[in-house]
Specification:
mainly alpha; 116 residues; 30s ribosomal protein s13, domain 2; single chain; 6 helices; 2 strands; 2 domains
């Protein structure tokens, strides 16, 4: 069982899709990581050797990517900043309404439902 950035990687999945389980890594970033390490994208997580997993961990420790809990904290801080400066997006978020200009006369029921 491999834990990477406090996320358990599924053993039976390919390394390409297993890395996408880490918050902040998508398919594109995952394929770039596989190329850097020289791993096949079809290789399963369980087939990785101990050295390869250590290289993977070192890559994330030395990278400047913001991932997992750090990324979540940054997003919360950004939202708090929008609320503090009283930006339109922040106010809409507080009211529980759609933020990106969607129609509210008839179609904001799901956004309002989550508010309650």
């Amino acid at each position: 069982m491999i834990y990477l950035l406090e996320t358990e990687l599924p053993k039976n999945k390919s390394i390409l899709f297993a890395l996408t389980k880490v918050y902040g890594i998508g398919k594109k970033q995952s394929s770039i990581i596989c190329k850097k390490l020289g791993l096949s994208t079809n290789c399963k997580v369980i087939e990785l050797s101990h050295d390869q997993t250590n290289e993977l961990v070192k890559l994330f420790e030395n990278s400047n990517l913001v991932l997992s809990n750090d990324l979540k904290k940054l997003q919360v801080l950004f939202l708090k900043k929008l609320i503090n400066i009283k930006a339109y997006k922040g106010l809409r978020k507080i009211l529980g309404l759609p933020i990106r200009g969607q129609r509210t006369h008839t179609n904001a029921k799901t956004a309002r439902r989550f508010r309650r």
